[in-house]
Amino acid sequence: MIHLDPARAAVVAVDMHRGHLDPAVATLPLAAERCGPVIKRAAALFADLRARGVPIVHVVTEYRDAAEIAANPFWKAVHDDPSKARKGILRHNLAGSPGTSPASTPRRACCAPPSRRPTATSGWWSRPMPSTRWTGTTCTGSR
């Protein structure tokens, strides 16, 4: 058993959003047969952590539009290469799309607003932000 002090630790959930884990709306989906088990395990982990008072921070990159995504040379090359499997890249994680919401936790009113920097990474809290300083984090992700 791992001991996490909720006053000094947080869990950062990366890419645990519907854009990967909900076949109905995913633009860059994980294999459909893997989505349910990943969400189920993550939901159980997050419920256990919340019960212990450990905050969970969900992180997802949001883009304003397809042009912002294509401005990144890597993603533009992926989009332009017909041999690449990631065909939905110019539709992925557009701000306000259902794919940017968490797959295992409803987005709460206490969410931090997305940053408006180019290629921003935004985060939202699955419970109110603690007033203590964290000295450690544990990361989990969909891939």
Q: How would you describe this structure to a colleague?
A:
The protein has 143 residues and is of the alpha/beta class. The chain has one domain. 26% of the residues lie in helices and 17% in strands. Strands 3-2-1-4 form a four-stranded mixed sheet, covered by helices on one side. The chain is elongated and about 45 Å long. It starts with 8 loop residues before the first strand and ends with a strand.
Write down the Rg.
16 Å
Given as residue ranges, the uncertain stretches (5+ residues, pLDDT < 50) are: 106-132
**Number of helices, where a helix is a run of at least 4 consecutive DSSP H or I residues:** 4
What structural class do you assign from the helix and strand content?
Answer: alpha/beta
Number of E-state strands:
4
The biggest sheet, with number of strands, parallel, antiparallel or mixed sense and barrel status, is: 4 strands, mixed
What do the pLDDT scores average to? 75
- The tally of domains stands at 1
Shape: elongated
What spatial order of strands do you see in the largest sheet? 3-2-1-4
- What portion of the residues fall into strands of 2 or more residues? 15-25%
Binned, the helix content reads: 25-40%
Distance between the termini: 23 Å
Secondary-structure element order, N to C? EHHEHHEE
